[in-house]
Every structure is written in C-alpha cells, then in structure tokens.
C-alpha cells in the first residue's frame, strides 16, 4: 500500500466529511499516527479498511464534538484527481450533498478515492452485491436529476 497516495485520499475523505481543511488535516494526521501504532499486527489485506475505519471514527468523533462547518480552499496538490474535477462541478456537488451521509461516503470511497470493493465491504459492512446495487441506484438518481437540470449525458 502506497502511504503517500493514501494520505491524500484519506485527507480528501476527511475533508468531504468535515468540510474544514484544518480539521481534515488534523484528523488525517491522527489517523496515520493510530495506523502506525497498530500496523505491525495487521494483515496486509486489512490495512486499507483499517485506515478508513480510523478516519471514519475520528470524523464521527469530530462531528459529535459539534465543530462548525467552515469552508476553505483545498490544497490543489492534495486534491487534484481527474475524478475530483467531476465532483467539483457545482451541480453535482450540490446533488451529492443532498444525498444521505452513507450514500455520500459510498461515492467518495468508490469513485473519488478508488477504494476496492472488497475494502468498501469491510469499511461499510455491506455486501458486494449491496454496494453494486446501491451505487447503481445513486448514479441513476444523479443522472436523472442532472438531466432535469439541463445537463447532457456527455
């Protein structure tokens, strides 16, 4: 597992969850500190799900603290990804933010961070079939809503 690449993806995941760059940076750093403390006792196939589980739990913990959502610019070096351009589209972003949290998380893991389906199963507790079915339903909904808004299929 390439930790540099995962650092950027975990940061993006945390930012998407907390929507505040400094908080996302703090959570990302804490995620990797906890990961390194436990890494030696993990099987290599469980490292990625464990990393996302730590990040997810820290984001939930931050949310429970009642931190306020603040916007800031994301460092372009960390956030550039061809998929990110798709997410950055205002219409799509607004539609995604209207989705329930679990659906937002699924899209982020699957498309923005390219997390393998097997790892998403471990992170979310859903079966492979449920993930495929739920993803297809979400994408169909987004496509329909975009078409209503005048966007083409291209």
Can you walk me through this structure?
The structure is a single chain. This protein is mainly α and 154 residues long. It has 2 domains: 69 residues, Rna Polymerase Sigma Factor, Chain: A; 75 residues, Orthogonal Bundle (Arc Repressor Mutant, subunit A). It has 9 helices and no strands. α1 packs across α2 and α1 packs antiparallel against α7. It starts with a helix and ends in a 6-residue tail after the last helix. One of its GO terms (biological process) is DNA-templated transcription initiation. Keywords: Sigma factor, Transcription, Transcription regulation. GO terms for molecular function: DNA binding; sigma factor activity. Belongs to the sigma-70 factor family. ECF subfamily.
Q: In percent, how helical is the residue content?
A: over 70%
CATH architecture level-2 label of the largest domain? Orthogonal Bundle
CATH fold node name of the largest domain? Arc Repressor Mutant, subunit A
Biggest sheet features: none
User: pLDDT below 50 for ≥5 consecutive residues: which ranges?
Assistant: 67-76
Give the N-to-C terminal Cα separation. 34 Å
Helix and strand composition category: mainly alpha
Radius of gyration: 16 Å
Can you identify the CATH superfamily of the largest domain?
Winged helix-like DNA-binding domain superfamily/Winged helix DNA-binding domain
Q: What form results from the Cα inertia axes?
A: globular
Please give the CATH class of the largest domain.
Mainly Alpha
Pfam families: Sigma70_r2, Sigma70_r4_2
Domain RNA polymerase sigma factor 70 region 4 type: 91-141
Organism: Subdoligranulum variabile
InterPro entries: RNA_pol_sigma-70-like, RNA_pol_sigma-70_dom, RNA_pol_sigma70_r2, RNA_pol_sigma70_r4_t2, RNA_pol_sigma_r2, RNA_pol_sigma_r3/r4-like, WH-like_DNA-bd_sf
């Amino acid at each position: 597992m390439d930790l540099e690449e995962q650092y950027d993806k975990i940061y993006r995941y945390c930012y998407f969850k907390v929507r505040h760059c400094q908080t996302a940076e703090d959570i990302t750093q804490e995620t990797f500190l906890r990961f390194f403390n436990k890494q030696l006792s993990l099987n290599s196939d469980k490292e990625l799900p464990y990393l996302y589980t730590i990040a997810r739990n820290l984001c939930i913990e931050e949310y429970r603290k009642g931190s306020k959502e603040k916007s800031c610019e994301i460092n372009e070096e960390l956030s550039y990804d061809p998929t990110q351009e798709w997410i950055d589209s205002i219409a799509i972003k607004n539609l995604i933010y209207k989705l329930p949290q679990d659906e937002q998380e699924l899209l982020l893991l699957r498309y923005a961070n390219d997390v393998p389906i097997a790892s998403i199963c471990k992170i979310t507790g859903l079966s492979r079939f449920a993930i495929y079915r739920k993803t297809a339903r979400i994408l169909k909904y987004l496509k329909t809503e975009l078409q209503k808004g005048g966007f083409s299929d291209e």
